[in-house]
Amino acid sequence: MTPLSDSVVAALRSAGCVFAEDEAELILSTARTPDEVTAMVDRRVQGLPLEHVLGWAEFRGLRIGVEPGVFVPRRRTEFLVDQAVALAKGASVVVDLCCGSGAVGAALAAALGGPELHAADIDPAAVRCARRNVAPFGGLVHEGDLFTALPDTLRGRVDVLAANVPYVPTEEVGLLPSEARDHEPLVALDGGADGLDLVRRVAVEAPRWLAPGGCLLVETSEHQASLAVEAFTRSGLITRLEVSEEMYANVVIGVRP
């Protein structure tokens, strides 16, 4: 290690960063000058999420651009993408609803060989960020509340509808790590009283947008999964739950008959 890397590790460790060595390596490989290193370390020590400090997050082998005020894609959400890819290898139309940075849409487009890609979010900052991330795949990003953001021409045509909606119960938002609570938009975290408000809304509307055999996928928590499955089933979808204990991920999948 160099004196600079030693000092970066020491500063991060003193700020409580558990993976100080790994974070130092990422900062040093991203910064272009020693002054940038200092500025990035200062922002990290002040509590800014590492991904916001770097300006990108790794997601399923892609570098997804992120910025302050935009939800950082979680590694566990890669499990949702894995499930979608396994289920719909020949998908021609993909929608990333509540897209945030557009990570899910970009990863699906990369894995599925360039389908027609649409993404949508209610947050203007997320929309701006997602547009940059899906542009290499020819993706379009729409601003608005869930399905109202999408063009009507997509009705009945969507093969994969990935809706990584917020699912933290309102009373539990305050219990989240400060990196999320203080630096990510509330609209990307708060899922209502039991965390399932948006899951239910999506489940009700999804069958009108899915193509026959098209699939809806949402991420949820272990204790919410059974209620999410019920919501999907009530909407007439053929529903199942997939779980990855390794990634702490629960994905509810509904297929339009």
UniProtKB/TrEMBL annotation:
Pfam families: MTS. GO terms for molecular function: peptide chain release factor N(5)-glutamine methyltransferase activity. It catalyses: L-glutaminyl-[peptide chain release factor] + S-adenosyl-L-methionine = N(5)-methyl-L-glutaminyl-[peptide chain release factor] + S-adenosyl-L-homocysteine + H(+). The keyword Signal does not apply. Its EC number is 2.1.1.297. GO terms for biological process: methylation. The keyword Methyltransferase applies. Keywords: Methyltransferase, S-adenosyl-L-methionine, Transferase. Residues 77-151 form the Methyltransferase small domain. Gene3D superfamilies: DNA helicase RuvA subunit, C-terminal domain, Vaccinia Virus protein VP39. InterPro entries: HemK-like, MeTrfrase_put, N5-glutamine_MTase, SAM-dependent_MTases_sf, Small_mtfrase_dom. It comes from the Bacteria. NCBIfam families: hemK_fam, PrmC_rel_meth. PANTHER family: HEMK METHYLTRANSFERASE, MTRF1L RELEASE FACTOR GLUTAMINE METHYLTRANSFERASE. This is peptide chain release factor N(5)-glutamine methyltransferase. It comes from Streptomyces sp. R41. The lineage of its organism: Bacteria, Bacillati, Actinomycetota, Actinomycetes, Kitasatosporales.
